[in-house]
Amino acid sequence: MSEETIQYVDGAIEGVEIRYLKTFSDSRGWLIEIFRNDELAEDRWPVMTYISSTLPGVARGPHEHVDQTDGFAFIGPSNFKLYLWDTRKDSPTYGRRYVEVLGEVKPAAVWIPPGVVHAYRNVGDIPGLVLNAPNRLYAGKGKKEPVDEIRHEEAVPPRFVLD
After folding, report:
1. b or e along 24-47 (b: 16 or more beta carbons within 10 Å of the residue's beta carbon)?
2. Disulfide: which of 14, 17, 30, 35 matches 111 by Cβ 3.0-4.6 Å?
3. Which domains does the chain carry?
4. Phi and psi of 122, rounded to 5°?
5. What is the CA radius of gyration of the chain?
6. What is its EC number (predicted)?
């Protein structure tokens, strides 16, 4: 069965780590711990971080990486519908799709391994922020290497549908 014709079934995906985050609030505001090196395998430790703002209704992805693990943090404001598809033919969860709403209603950090197609959409009414802390540098050292990214947004017919 080719990936173009696979019918994905919903379920957990091997190698994806989701950590629901706790908000520590006091009279000054709040704090959320996203990454601790004693709680994450060393091969997933971030080597860079960036933050993006996504407008309501806008999606980012679907795309995947050959070597990179993405470490997203969805903490708000707003909420995001996260979509994951396991396209790794050697994975015990090949052919699975995982969907969950994360962000202000349910803060979470998510580590997505190579070969897992991923996308998210802002399903809230306000712009939302997403932090990413991947374990590889974008475009390599000095931004002089090919970008580790396989984009699927323009595929015809669409292979990965965001419902």
Report:
1. eeeeeeeeeebbeeeebeeebebe
2. 17
3. 9-139 (2.60.120.10)
4. -75, 110
5. 16
6. 5.1.3.13
CB 105 within 8 A of CB 99: no
Residue 116: which of 158, 76, 83 has the closest Cα?
A: 83
Chain-centre distance of CA 88, in angstroms? 16
pLDDT digits (tens, 9 = 90+) for 2-30: 445 789 999 999 999 999 999 999 999 99
List the Cα angle 13/16/22 in 5-degree steps.
125
Within 8 A by CB and 6+ apart from 66, the residues are 114, 115, 148, 150
List CB contacts of 3: < 8 A, sequence separation 6 or more: 87, 159
Model pLDDT, residue 5: 72
| Burial bucket for residue 159 (CB in 10 Å: 0-12, 13-18, 19+) | middle
- Phi, psi (rounded to 5 degrees) for 75: -125, -5
